[in-house]
Structure formats: structure tokens, C-alpha cells
Amino acid sequence: MKEGSSAVDSVVHSVLRKAGVLGAKELEAWKRPGDDIRRLSQRDYGASLRRRLDYRQVKNLVERATELWPHFNQKVLGPPSKGFFSRAADALQLHLKAARYTSLALYGFYVDRSETALTKPLIFVNSAHHTLAIGTAFCHEVGHHFCTEIGRPRSAGVRFYFDSAYNEHLQDNGELAADVIVSLAGYPKPAAKRIFAGRQRRAIAGKGNLDHAIIDAIRAHLEASYRFDFSVALSAFQNLQYLAGMIHYAKLRAALLEEYEL
């Protein structure tokens, strides 16, 4: 049975109508990006990772991602593109909807098929964001789909990805699992070992801050691999939001390398 775009659009509109209500706390936090950045810098990512996801669970996610992307965690997946999204969605038998949404607080969401009349799960990404942020949202939602497939941890129902909820992700098995996919996709192992080296890696994986040299290395990697850098083309507010994401995924990547050698 082939479902028309009207059925998919109907589900998307229904979910988006609820986003402002269900994400009230996240939408309020989104207005204070500096608070999120300070909290992220002080979090012990290694401890959160060990507490929420054991090595076997993470390896299962990596194996599933490698089935989809053979060079996963070995080479960069490349700048996100329509072809990249559509090929992955087709391979996973997913509905994919990309559209502009007025609030940049929302990156996207994943809907398990059991929640709707659709025969396939649905991923929505907010295309109002920078291309790298769109790719981040897509990989995050694919991570939720992997969790639903392998059940470790199961990610049932509707999963919203709000830009200001990174601290909460560290307390949620499903969100952290989805973020693992993003972090490994964004920083494949060779790049991660180069950026996060020795004692610095251990400190960053814990409660340590990213120093200027590490931040410069991360920015160089993101610009070369994904054509992203903070710029005057983005508002100061949006640059702060993306900075929060950069800190979150960088600290998580250091923790994955330090704790599980991935």
C-alpha cells in the first residue's frame, strides 16, 4: 500500500500542533541559550554515558548504522544533501518530510508507526535550519528508529528534538542513544582521535571545558567536512544555539572514545 503525501502531511500537521504544548519547558529554555551552555560544560558525559547506555547497547547501534552507512564512524558522511536523506529513508522504509517550521527551537521529530495509521514510521526535519543542523536532526531521528528496531532502548511514540534539551538528553536513554548516532556520524573515529587526544580527552569527557585549541580544531573539522562555521549570516541567538549543540556532541564524542574506545 502506497500512502499519499496528504496522509503524511496530515500526521505532520497534527504533531506540530502539539509541539508547543508538549515542549513548553524546552521552548522556554530555548530563550536562555547561555544557561544551557554553562550546564553542558559542567556535565560529566562519561558518567552519563555509562549510566544510561552500556557498551553492548552502543555497539548494537553502531552495527545497525554501519549496515545503513558502510563507512559510519570511519569517514565523514559528507555534507547533508537531499540525496543523502532520501537514500537513507528509502533504505530504512521511512516516510521523510522536510519543511520549514516557524520555531527554530524544533529540529524535528520521529513518529513510530504504531502511533498513526501510516504503514511506515515518519521522520520530520525542520528545513528552516542550517544544512548541518538539518543533517543533525535527521541522524538523531534515525537513531530513534534504530532504537525502535533493536529495542535497546526502545523509542516508541513521538520523539521531539528540541534544540535546548541537551542536558535532558543525558538523563534519557532513548535521547542519548539517538545522540550517539549524531556524535559518531559527525566525528568519525580518525577525526575524533585527532581532535580529542590524551589527557584532554579524559577531561572533556568528564566535567572539563573545551579549550580554545580544541574549539578551533572542532570548527576546522566542521567547516572542512560539513561546510559549517559560525557566521554573521546567522543571528547571535542562533549562533549560541548551534554552539550549545557543538559542545554537547563534542563532549559526548570524547566520552564515547574514552569510555568505549569507539
Structure summary:
The protein is α+β, with helices and mostly antiparallel strands and 262 residues long. It has helices at residues 5-22, 24-29, 33-42, 45-52, 55-68, 82-92, 131-150, 166-169, 173-186, 189-195, 198-205, 212-226, 236-260, and strands at 95-99, 106-111, 122-126, 158-162.
Describe the structure.
Helix 7 crosses helix 9 (173-186). The mean pLDDT is 88. The chain has one domain (5-260). It is an alpha+beta fold and 262 residues long. Strands 1-3-2-4 form a 4-stranded mixed β-sheet, with helices on both faces. The chain is globular and about 55 Å long. It is built from 13 helices and 4 strands.
Q: What attributes characterize this protein structure?
A:
single chain; 262 residues; alpha+beta; four-stranded mixed beta sheet; 13 helices
Number of strand segments: 4
- Overall morphology: globular
Strand order of the largest sheet: 1-3-2-4
The share of residues in helices is 55-70%
Main beta sheet strand tally, sense and closure: 4 strands, mixed
Topology diagram in text:
Layout: H1 5-22, H2 24-29, H3 33-42, H4 45-52, H5 55-68, H6 82-92, E1 95-99, E2 106-111, E3 122-126, H7 131-150, E4 158-162, H8 166-169, H9 173-186, H10 189-195, H11 198-205, H12 212-226, H13 236-260
Parallel strand pairs: 1-3
Antiparallel strand pairs: 2-3, 2-4
Helix pairs in contact: 3-13, 4-13, 5-7, 7-9, 9-13, 11-13
